[in-house]
Each structure stands twice: as structure tokens, then as C-alpha cells.
Amino acid sequence: MAKRPKVLCRTCGTENLPGEVLCQRCGSSLSPIEADNREYTIICPRCQNTNNAGSFFCYTCGKYFADVEETKKGWGPTRRKRGAMSAPAPKAKVIMPGGAEIILNGTPVFIERSDFDSTLPHDLLMNISRQHVLITYSKNKYYVQDYGRDGKGSTNHTRLNGTDIYKKKRKALKDGDKIELAGQPELTVTFKMLQELK
User: Fold this and answer.
1) Which of 4-8, 10-14, 74-78, 107-111 has the highest mean pLDDT?
2) 8 Å CB contact between 173 and 141
3) Is 133:66 a contact under the CB 8 Å cutoff?
4) Cα angle, residue 66 at apex, residues 98 and 167 outer, rounded to 5°
5) Which of 1, 26, 61, 108 is most deeply packed, by most CB within 10 A?
6) What's domain 66-77+90-198's architecture?
7) SS3 66
């Protein structure tokens, strides 16, 4: 009897037993990905590499993917009824202090400590929470929320155009808005629209 080959996980590289549906190490789907079906992949907002939909973080750059309760309530890309078509979210970006960019396409994205230039002083970086702010898209608008641990607010607050938004509801973003993290002007990021909001 011929021995069936083990199945290699595309996400983490672990060998799995034949017939397994999910990877025993990372839980990613082992079924083939259809190249033209974007629902089965996650494009990393930081490095733009493709990841399996079951990934918790980018296996290229380590960016954490937002999977928070708000997105399940419809704060993410516009939900649609089965079979109905919805327009994709307009593209936008967040420009970091060092010039790096995080591309937004409607999927919820955290702005976190690891997004900042590693050349910044360690004590300055430590003022930023691991999941400092959450940017979401809903009803034709991008929103920002001071998030922190479990959505209870960041340790050192967030300012939107100079106004503290700590523990406040999400705020709509406009082109050119400045988001200052942890009360540090050096940690200010800029929101820019790449396509017009409809």
C-alpha cells in the first residue's frame, strides 16, 4: 500500500498528516487557495505580502492582524447579504513618522508599537501600547479608536488633531488628519485618502 505524502502548511511550514483539514500547529486551512478569491487571503497592511486567512499575524514582517469584537459587529468592511455585491472600500494609508506607510483597504488595522521605526529611542517606543489605536471602515467612512488592551483604552492616550480621544467612541477620519500617540509629537501619524470616499 502506497504511503500518502504529508500536507505542508502554507502559513507556517508544518508537515501535517494526510487528510487533515486544519494545520495542527497554527490552525490555518490546508485546503487549496483559489488564486482569484480574495476572501481566502489576508494582504498585510504593512508589507503587502499575502497570508492565509487563518493567520493571526504576517509571516513576513510580523504585523498583527486585527480580529476584534467590533469587526464581528460590522465595524469592518461593509457586510452584505448572500449573493449581493458591495463596492470595495476606498484605499487609504497611514503615513508613519519615518515615512513608512500602512495601506488601508477597509479591513480593520491596529497601529501599534511594532509599526514605528526601530531607530526611535526605546523609552519613547515603550509609551505606545501593543494595540494602541484601531482603524476601521464602515458606512463609507474610516474611523479611529483609542484601543489599548482589550479595547479599554491605551495606556498613554491618543489625540486626533489635538483632541484627546481616550476611552471615547470611534471618530471619523478625514484626509490629512493627524493622530498623535502617547502624547508624543514624534509619534504622530497622518491619515491620507488614496481614493475618494463615496
Assistant:
1) 107-111
2) yes
3) no
4) 80
5) 108
6) Sandwich (2.60)
7) coil
Domains in the chain: boundaries: 8-64, 66-77+90-198
Express each pLDDT in 54-78 by its tens digit: 888 888 888 888 876 544 444 444 4
- Longest C-alpha distance within the chain, in Å? 71
> And the C-alpha cell for 52?
492565509
Comparison of pLDDT for 98 and 181, the residue scoring more: 181
Q: Report the amino acid identity of residue 88.
A: P
Residue type, 147: Y
Look at the chain and count its residues: 198
Q: How far apart are CA 122 and CA 41, in angstroms?
A: 34
Other Cβ atoms within 10 Å of 87 Cβ, number: 10
Question: What single letter denotes the amino acid at residue 72?
Answer: K
Q: Which of 23, 179, 183, 195 is nearest to 109 (CA)?
A: 179
Cell triple for residue 190?
497622518
